[in-house]
Amino acid sequence: MAPELSSSESRSLKNVIFCIGDGMGFEAVKAAGYYAYGETGHLSFEAFPYQAEMATYAANTPMTDSAAAATGMATGHKVNNGVISMELPGSGVPLKTILEISKSEGKLVGLVSTTYITHATPAAFAAHNPDRNNLLDIAHDYLHLTRPNILFGGGGNGLTEKDARAAGYTVVTDRDGLFALNINAETHISGQFGDTNIPYMFDGPNDLPHLSEMVSVALNLLSNAEDGFFLLVEGGRIDHAGHSNDIERNILETMEFSKTVQTIFDRVSHRNDTLILVTADHETGGLQVHKNNGQGRVPEISWSTGGHTVSNVPLYAWGVNADRIDGLMNNTDLVKVAGYPPNQTYQ
Hints:
The chain has 347 residues and is of the alpha/beta class. The chain has 11 helices and 12 strands. The protein has helices at residues 26-37, 66-75, 98-104, 120-126, 135-146, 161-166, 175-179, 211-222, 237-243, 247-268, 334-337; strands spanning 15-21, 50-55, 108-116, 150-154, 170-172, 189-193, 229-235, 274-279, 288-291, 300-302, 313-319, 328-330.
């Protein structure tokens, strides 16, 4: 990784990239580092110059879910578990997200995830609903309200190819279709890969793209935006492996997430107008690493739960405003780091 841009340079923030490793706590980072490199400190984002830890609690409970946590990051506002970017507790009005504000400024915007794309984390950036399970309504918000330029993730779950095409999206359904896109001729692309979450890396080759591949194509479209872009990238299946207490799949998903961040960094590291934030919405599984067994060997670990925990999560930053990352922070701080005022509502 290159060093951080000099803080003495006068520069403006034009592009913001949020990378969320769903369920990726400090110990998941450690386990992946031991397996991939035999030691910690070598995952792509671990080389970022500014690092902190982040609290994740929801408005109504110390143990957040992805909906409340992602809403905190997307809007700067604490909400109850299960809520997608609405003022609950409170008036129930929609909360403006960083994606929506970016779009109102003329920027291109996108969502990329290894979960199905209407899942809670991406939904919190581009939809408004009191219940994360109202997938048809979330899909409707995507296609008819926020209209992200990029919707790349698992298919089904409220978002159909027919509806996306009717809303003016070009639809692709596999890796070949993704790489065959003529990005210069497209403005709105829905990558609907399979009929649910994208398969784990552990489970071997298939015709669906990996997270790093989806991000590479997304950046082909977004990075040429004259007024800048906002991109949300989620390594969503780290969380699923945590829920299953499956360390092999957890490690490989974290490694692919690290590869994805490296792909992003390689594309933007020459720029002086971009911020990359890498974090998690919460920790999953209560993972503890007890012994490093060396490169290519799964470390000795234990799990304490099949659910989420209240543990703080890591936060890494590179680029413009990255020096605002320090110490112990809250997930509601990220929109301010990205230069946006929090707690805006629709009136």
